[in-house]
Design a protein that fits this description.
heterodimer, A: 314 residues, mainly alpha, MetI-like fold, 2 domains, globular, B: 341 residues, alpha/beta, five-stranded antiparallel β-sheet, 13 strands, 35% helix, transmembrane helix (chain A), ABC transporter permease (chain A), MetI-like (chain A)
Chain lengths: 314, 341
């Protein structure tokens, strides 16, 4: 049963990948600018430009270019960067791990923070904790992450000098400096996530705390604490799991800004530079990886959903 | 029957302060339940029967307050004065409750075995494994076939009747002395209804527990209860044994409730006799008797002075200035050409 679900799920992925890569391919062509001109500079002669264009296969019709790229991609060859000649999969491997570390930290902050604020707000209704949680829930969605990032840098790096303003060390090399450097970008990335989870889980908890089965639990003699953690929370988490899954995609997109501000050599920065240089192959590669990641996360979301809710069967 | 009193509710007054005035969902009711007795609390929606029962459990919403002279004595202990922590030891252990809708009253994400065992582990010093064993016994006792397998089933895998049986198993988990059943059959099919009522009666006989049965269905009352309390607008308007109430309802409201039951015997009525009018707005209760606006027998006195619950000749208590007598009843029936069996 589960295997069937898995296979069906994988079948969905194929058209999804085709459509998204085609869209991205056409979008890049719509942006003004030419990778060849970017490489050779404005003073290049017409012949030289034409020659390089032929070399890179850019003189062929767009659809043909796309199918060419697709054919290679299916065979595991994502091509080389138009600009630097580096293998695309190599560039992706280097940056993907960095971005994943950032996103995982951002997700952990969001989930832990969101759960904490939502539960304390429900446990102590109308207390100052509740008001802080509600205020934070609105504030977090209203403030853009680049602003948070800059305020954090000014305060914690420049004024207090607690953590470095920019840079990145991988967790496998030096965990301590990884932690020091990831705190600010991780927090700026997760502020919106904390707010969204707080708000969604809080309202969901409010509903389940009034549910008949929670009243049944009280009639058995459970405490408020047990009512929340044993009876209410698991039910309240059901809709929030979807939110958390969606959050992952949003956060992946937000890394583009956050990585740029904190000078983190991740996929976000890679794609920003590639777009500037009209480096199609890199952009395509990054988009491909991001889509695959979002699809994987959606898949994990479905599995978590089934684990939390026995009524769901595949 | 044992005559020892298990629960004694004295002048229970619950009120909700609001900006438009005070709402009194329960306005001075007193009654008691003896050991091993099944008492039915009957009334329309909004008559205060659920608030009364939840007061006993201490589970009313925070907005509902009690007057200081109210008391609910359970084995001599005033439940209204107990701290939350002490109440928790009584809930599910000495007093258990089953609810109206078994669809929504069981936690959808836990297997029913676990939901029964939870109650046992909370109150008895036993391991979870032992509690599971007791849960299995309980499922057998409430008549769930193939109980061993059902233990690990989730509520959505059970039918409505089975779920209510599982609810009863949860309530019985710690051998409670008092079981409050809040409309236990309202959400069920008629055939399942009588099965559940039979089950409740059998369990009452077997374990000698007292049951407070809350319902708006007089059919349920006739089938199950020993004694009846009729509630209207937060007050008890009539009290008596089932026989007394059914043979000779003295309050016009009780009579009205009886008349609105379709009869299986005698000539069938084309239109059921409904009580005219609606329950008054709790913020604009009439001056005298609460029922005065809907009563066919109202006199001037009824509009001015509230009647009190008084013991009448037959031994029942009724709160009415002009209680109906048997003779008046039959005369009245002849007039309206309606035969009530």
């Amino acid at each position: 049963m589960f295997l069937k679900f898995l296979l069906r799920r994988l079948l969905y992925v194929i058209p999804m990948l085709l459509i998204t890569t085609l869209i991205v391919f056409s979008l890049i062509l719509l942006i003004p600018g030419d990778p060849v001109l970017a490489m050779l500079g404005d003073s290049a002669t017409h012949e030289k430009v034409e020659e390089l264009r032929r070399q890179l296969g850019l003189d062929q019709p767009v659809m043909l270019q796309y199918f060419h790229w697709l054919n290679n991609a299916i065979h595991g060859d994502l091509g080389r960067s138009i600009f630097t000649g580096q293998l695309v999969d190599e560039a992706l491997m280097q940056t993907l791990f960095v971005t994943m570390q950032l996103v995982v930290v951002g997700m952990i902050f969001s989930i832990v923070g969101g759960l904490f604020f939502a539960i304390t707000s429900i446990y102590f209704p109308n207390s100052w904790m509740d008001y802080v949680a509600r205020f934070f829930g609105t504030l977090g969605t209203a403030i853009p992450n680049f602003l948070v990032a800059m305020v954090l840098i000014i305060f914690f790096s420049l004024k207090l000098n607690w953590v470095p303003a920019t840079g990145f060390t991988s967790i496998v090399h030096e965990p301590v400096s990884f932690l020091q450097q990831i705190i600010l970008p991780g927090f700026s990335l997760s502020l919106a996530g904390i707010a969204v989870i707080t708000r969604h889980l809080r309202s969901s908890l409010m509903e389940t705390m009034d549910a008949d089965y929670v009243r049944t639990a009280y009639s058995k003699g459970v405490s408020r604490y047990q009512a929340i953690f044993k009876h209410s929370l698991q039910n309240a988490m059901l809709p929030v799991v979807t939110t958390i899954g969606l959050l992952f995609g949003t956060m992946l997109g937000a890394t583009v800004v956050v990585e740029t501000i904190f000078a983190i050599p991740g996929m976000g920065q890679l794609v920003v530079n590639a777009i500037g240089q009209r480096d199609f192959t890199i952009v395509q590669g990054v988009v491909l990886v991001m889509i695959v990641m979002v699809i994987v996360i959606n898949f994990i979301t479905d599995i978590v959903y089934a684990l939390l809710d026995p009524r769901i069967e595949y | 029957m044992n005559t020892e009193t298990l629960l004694k509710v004295n002048h229970l007054k619950a009120y909700i302060p609001s900006s438009k005035g005070e709402i009194k969902p329960v306005n001075d009711i007193s009654f008691s339940i003896k050991k091993g007795e099944i008492v039915a609390l009957v009334g329309e929606s909004g008559s205060g029967k659920s608030v009364s029962s939840l007061s006993i459990m201490g589970l009313n919403a925070g907005a509902i307050k009690y007057r200081p002279d109210s008391s609910i004595l359970f084995e001599g202990q005033d439940l209204l004065k107990l701290k939350e922590k002490e109440l928790r030891k009584i809930r599910g252990n000495d007093i258990a409750m089953i609810f109206q809708d078994p669809m929504s009253s069981l936690n959808p994400v836990h297997p029913i075995g676990r939901q029964i065992a939870e109650s046992i582990v909370l109150h008895k010093k036993v391991s979870y494994k032992e509690a599971k064993k007791t849960a299995l016994d309980l499922l057998n006792k409430v008549g769930i076939p193939d109980a061993e397998r059902r233990l690990n089933d989730y509520p959505h895998q059970l039918s409505g009747g089975m779920r209510q049986r599982a609810m009863i198993a949860i309530a019985l988990a710690c051998n409670p002395k008092l079981l409050i059943a809040d409309e236990p059959t309202t959400a069920l099919d008629v055939t399942i209804q009588s099965q559940i009522l039979n089950l409740l009666r059998d369990l009452q006989k077997e374990f000698g527990i007292s049951i407070l049965l809350i319902t708006h269905d007089l059919g349920v009352v006739a089938e199950t209860a020993d004694r009846v309390l009729v509630m209207y607008c937060g007050q008890i308007v009539e009290e008596g044994t089932v026989e007394e109430i059914f043979e000779n309802p003295q309050h016009p409201y009780t009579k009205g409730l009886m008349d609105s039951i379709p009869s299986l015997y005698g000539p069938s009525k084309e239109i059921l006799d409904a009580i005219p009018g609606v329950v008054p707005n709790p913020l604009e209760l009439p001056n005298g008797c609460n029922f005065v606006t809907r009563c066919a027998f109202a006199t001037e006195k009824c509009y001015e002075v509230s009647p009190v619950l008084e013991k009448h000749s037959s031994g029942t208590r009724v709160s009415c200035w002009n209680p109906l007598t048997k003779e008046a009843l039959s005369e009245n029936d002849r007039e309206s050409a309606v035969i009530v069996t």
